[in-house]
Amino acid sequence: MAVAHLLLQLSAAGNPPRRNSMVPPAMLLILQLLFTALGGAEGAASFRFTNACQHPVWVGALHGATSPPLARSGFYLAPSATSRLDAPSSGSWSGTFWARTGCAVDAATGRFSCATADCGTGDVACEGRGPAPPVTLAEITLAAPGSGGQDFYDVSLVDGFNVPVRIAPSGGGGGDCRPAACAGDVNAMCPADLRVLAAASSSSVVACKSACNAYGSARYCCTGQYGTPATCGPTSYSRVFKSACPAAYSYAYDDASSTFTCSGATGYDVTFCPGS
């Protein structure tokens, strides 16, 4: 960032410079404020979460194996509410976000749990644990600040579906920079053998399993002899997901229409139930 480079040069002027190189303090203050307004270090990103659902969600956040954790790994988000998390300001970062639904604290045990996408900690914080499928995932890998590299992001239904999700770059950026989303309601068209019901006596579908979750076969999970793009194509089950959400991953090798890129975005908006 040109402002950051200039600010560093001007700050150095305070260490016994020549008289004709002195910068007026007012100018230095203006540049400092501009640098802060532009987001600090080049490429630094923040995540803004919005709950457009008509019910509360409990957001889960999981950092990648080589990435540091964010300030929070789980939090409550009321309908119409927003919240923000900052990404680390140095190095690349990868992680996953999701919404948990139907959450409550057991009066007898004091443990917190959710009907969908529970992370199994017994608390609102996920503490480095991922969600139990079925779950809709927003996945992202940020390029290192200042590297000029591309961010990669997607919405994945490989582990099933619980709520619609969209992830979109904000604050500038170059390249394609389109939103990635699953805005359709997969639960409404979920095959009977993949449905997760609110209760045994209920007909309300709260999530839809992937065929891999439901059956665990190599064909549906793209493992073993089906472990390459050439041998693992779409199935009748994955086509249900794809028809509802054409821009989301419907199975493991569904890359062509499901991976999105952007360079230089200063933030990403993650919206749950974006079509509401």
- The number of strands is 15
Number of helices: 6
Strand order of the largest sheet: 3-2-5-8-9-14
Which spans have pLDDT < 50 for at least 5 consecutive residues? 1-43
The percent range for helix content is 10-25%
| Major beta-sheet overview | 6 strands, antiparallel
- What is the radius of gyration? 22 Å
End-to-end Cα distance, whole Å, is 38 Å
Sheet-strand content, in percent, reads 25-35%
Structural class: alpha+beta
Average predicted confidence as pLDDT: 85
Approximate shape: globular
* H and E order: HHEEEEEEEEEEEHEEHHHEE
Protein name: Thaumatin-like protein 1
Signal peptide: 1-43
Pfam families: Thaumatin
Keywords: Disulfide bond, Signal
Explain how this protein is built:
The chain is of the alpha+beta class. 17% of the residues lie in helices and 26% in strands. It contains six helices and 15 strands. The strands form four sheets. The chain has a six-stranded antiparallel sheet with strand order 3-2-5-8-9-14, with no helix packed on it. A five-stranded mixed sheet has the order 4-1-15-10-11, with no helix packed on it. It has a two-stranded antiparallel sheet with strand order 6-7. α1 runs antiparallel to α2. The N terminus is likely disordered.
